[in-house]
Amino acid sequence: MKRLLKLGIPLGLIAILLIAGCVSLPSEKIVITRYSIDPVLDSIPNGVSLPASIYIMPFTAAADQKSDRINYRVEENEMNRFYYHRWSAAPQKLIADIMSDFLVETNLFEEGVFQEAVGVVPEYELHGKLLQLFSNDVKRNPSAVFEVRITIFRVEPEPYRKYKVFQEQYRYDELRKNARVTSFVEASNLVAGKWLNDLYRDLSATLGPDQHVQPKAAQIIPAPDPTRTRKPEQPLESLDEGGEENRTTEQ
């Protein structure tokens, strides 16, 4: 203090400096807004029910779609991410959840829809991959782009095997009201509803009672029996049907 006075600094200014050192100005609060995906559906379709269950495997996503930050594009072949606008969870997880809830409500699979192991082998196993979900602002007409691939396997428990019975890739480009993020989320909700309706239509047609895919029966070829011998005096025509004895060779 004495040193400051000797330098000729007024006492009032010294007081102000001391007070300012004890007071911190409030910093601007960073607000991150999170969004969910709520599909817009006029009604829940029904009418087809399969006496089967389905297990939904965890969805995967393309490399640039795994973050919870919302993607946007302003130039071709260029993908960016918002920092303050994010999904409430990883987008592939949101897509899997809304699809699971939708399939439960439609009762398409009477024996149940599962997203985790339940101790039984379901008749079907569903795999999904999120390929694209971004705000497209390249052109004057902004849109919401959504693309997903769905693959379903039929599962046979004994002996365990599975084979593909369905695979389809869905892509939508929904026009938006404006370039705001909220407009993109609204368009994404519309797209999600369209996708679920299309998925139900395709699964009903492919896995429905009239189109139910049955596994091909395995052809079992018995090994030759080395103990079975042919009597020399027995003509070929008198041998029993089946086995090597039923084969004749024309000269």
List the helices and strands and how they pair.
Elements: H1 2-6, H2 11-22, E1 33-35, E2 53-56, E3 60-61, E4 69-73, E5 80-87, H3 91-106, E6 112-114, E7 124-136, E8 143-157, E9 160-175, H4 181-207
Parallel strand pairs: 1-5, 2-6, 2-7, 3-7, 4-7
Antiparallel strand pairs: 4-5, 7-8, 8-9
Overview of the molecule:
The protein has helices spanning 2-6, 11-22, 91-106, 181-207, and strands at 33-35, 53-56, 60-61, 69-73, 80-87, 112-114, 124-136, 143-157, 160-175. With 251 residues, it is of the alpha/beta class. Strands 1, 2, 3, 4, 5, 6, 7, 8 and 9 form a nine-stranded mixed sheet that branches. 21% of the residues are buried.
Distance between the termini: 126 Å
Helix content: 10-25%
What is the general shape? elongated
- The portion of residues forming beta strands comes to 25-35%
The profile of the biggest β sheet is: 9 strands, mixed
Extended strand count: 9
What are its keywords?
disordered C terminus, 251 residues, alpha/beta
Quick take:
The protein contains four helices and nine strands, in the order H-H-E-E-E-E-E-H-E-E-E-E-H. With 251 residues, it is of the alpha/beta class.
